[in-house]
Amino acid sequence: MANTENSGGVWAPALTPLTKDLAPDSGRATAQVKRLLDGGCHGAALFGTTGEATSFSVEQRMALLEAVLEAGVAPERLMVGSGCCALVDSVRLTAHAAGLGVKKVLMLPPFYYKGMSDQGLFDSYAAVIDRVGDPELALYLYHFPRLSGVPITHGLVEQLLFAYPQTVKGLKDSTGDPESCAGFIARFPALAVFPGTESIMLDMLLKGAAGCITASANVNAAAIRRVYDAWRAESPEARELQDGITALRMVLQANPMIPVLKHLLAERLEDPAWRRLCPPLTALSAEQLRALDSGLGDLGFSLEAA
Amino acid sequence: MANTENSGGVWAPALTPLTKDLAPDSGRATAQVKRLLDGGCHGAALFGTTGEATSFSVEQRMALLEAVLEAGVAPERLMVGSGCCALVDSVRLTAHAAGLGVKKVLMLPPFYYKGMSDQGLFDSYAAVIDRVGDPELALYLYHFPRLSGVPITHGLVEQLLFAYPQTVKGLKDSTGDPESCAGFIARFPALAVFPGTESIMLDMLLKGAAGCITASANVNAAAIRRVYDAWRAESPEARELQDGITALRMVLQANPMIPVLKHLLAERLEDPAWRRLCPPLTALSAEQLRALDSGLGDLGFSLEAA
């Protein structure tokens, strides 16, 4: 049951399967989104970092969203990554999604220029919001400084919330740092804050997080959902369940996450096409595969059961 | 006179003037390219960092190139920035430029994902070269780790030169670090290496650089060209001329370069539209403007004479 009140809960940034030409594979992608939603996720985010969003053109991204919606996925259970370097690209993707009923967008700041001022980043977000002009737009700020190189500061959030209180709804903190995430939660009670890793999910929920948006949900949705539900039910089991998903996360992230997750899906679905990656991502080495298998074996992780 | 032999010399990464809607202004851009080529530059690079390339869509970039060519600019005096995060975008921009006779492309690596392997970056460049399939394509690697976050390593260059010796022609080193630039020159004599700042131009020319691709040429082309010509003529004046352009560069880069250069062009041309910037870039503050004016005044720099 989705927590429709605040879009909280467990969200998976969906992996993007590829055709031989390294374009998004709409059939496999749609099937994966449905598996995620049927398998425990409150929602799925298309075109996050895990979905290799920046490796695709605006047209490829729009086409894939349309295919997923045409397959019957409810737009309110989707979130779309729409933050690009180019202003008109961000506007186009955001307006496209919102026009199709997908009002929740997860937006990177423009990420080529570094060391930009809060004012410059505010102007970027404001230009997108103003040009899209959809009063139902729900903007989630995407804070992932390790990859974007462009942090979302508290000052920027404050300025955006002041100017667009009806639009700026949340923030994903992909730093993995509990202090960073807790800082956003404490400072901005109006925001739905999501850590980007389930390893700190319970701790952050207890502090007021809205849920979690985590790549691992592509292969471990049900277990992550059990932690969320146990927290909602104030069950004493929550901590032990949390320890289980944290242990798995440590194994998954010990090697490059996107290749790891695509490999595991290929294994689970017996579909080698799932291993395809868009460069600059590369396949796991034999050594990385062995380390992954060994780590999963130690945990007794079963691909079928997850 | 362009050094057509190896495309060496003084190149300006052209600033991109904007319309009120923050789209490239083709009329002003064409005029600027012509001024650069008439004013001392061997060539002009469209859609570098200085040209705010990443702030525009693929369509906007293609349309501007077409407008510049339609205005009669010779394609061999242009270089086009064509490296995007998305593979199909890089392919489209590169094929478009090459198809119009602009065979020289300055290519950033895909710059969202960080910490990628040389193999992954090789695969990215190789996919563009293979898909474009133009035997006349002249690829210049764009090394600007401070902004891209993705360095071009010696190992990557070696691998590319081995696989595509007819295509990989050069490299722009925008680190500003003479050791980095000299390292590429020494290791890869087959490459036309360009430092990204004229402050080290003479030193690098003496070590074997092909020239310089520098933002400052938007406002100081003639003086930079005089250094290059003095070096070609083995004139003893070269060092003193170099000291002059270095002193100006220090003033220009003491504040954000793109706003500084656009402000100076607006002043020179008495055209305030030239001050427009695409967010996240912001206009110079009053304090920055005063510091700039003061620095230029100390040098006796005249906007009209440059």
Helix content of chain A: 40-55%
Instruction: Write down the overall geometry of chain A.
Output: globular
Rg value of chain A: 18 Å
Order of helical and strand elements of chain A = EHEHEHEHEHHEHEHEHHHH
Can you walk me through this structure?
Two copies of one chain form a homodimer. Chain A has an eight-stranded parallel beta sheet. Mean pLDDT of chain A is 96; it is low at 1-5. With 306 residues, the first copy, chain A, is of the alpha/beta class. In chain A, α1 (26-38) links the parallel β1 (9-13) and β2. Chain A is 47% helix and 12% strand. The first copy, chain A, contains twelve helices and eight strands. Chain A has one domain: Alpha-Beta Barrel (TIM Barrel), CATH 3.20.20.70. Chain A starts with 8 loop residues before the first strand and ends in a 7-residue tail after the last helix. In chain A, α9 (217-232) runs antiparallel to α10 (238-252). Chains A and B meet through α3, α4 and α5 of A and α3, α4 and α5 of B.
At a glance:
Chain A is of the alpha/beta class.
Keywords:
306 residues, homodimer, eight-stranded parallel beta sheet, alpha/beta, disordered N terminus, 8 strands, 12% strand
Task: Describe the secondary structure blueprint for this structure.
2 copies of one chain form a homodimer.
Chain A: E1 9-13, H1 26-38, E2 43-46, H2 58-70, E3 78-81, H3 87-99, E4 104-107, H4 118-132, E5 138-143, H5 145-148, H6 154-163, E6 168-173, H7 178-187, E7 192-195, H8 201-207, E8 211-213, H9 217-232, H10 238-252, H11 257-269, H12 286-299
Helix pairs in contact in A: 1-2, 2-3, 3-4, 4-6, 9-10, 10-12
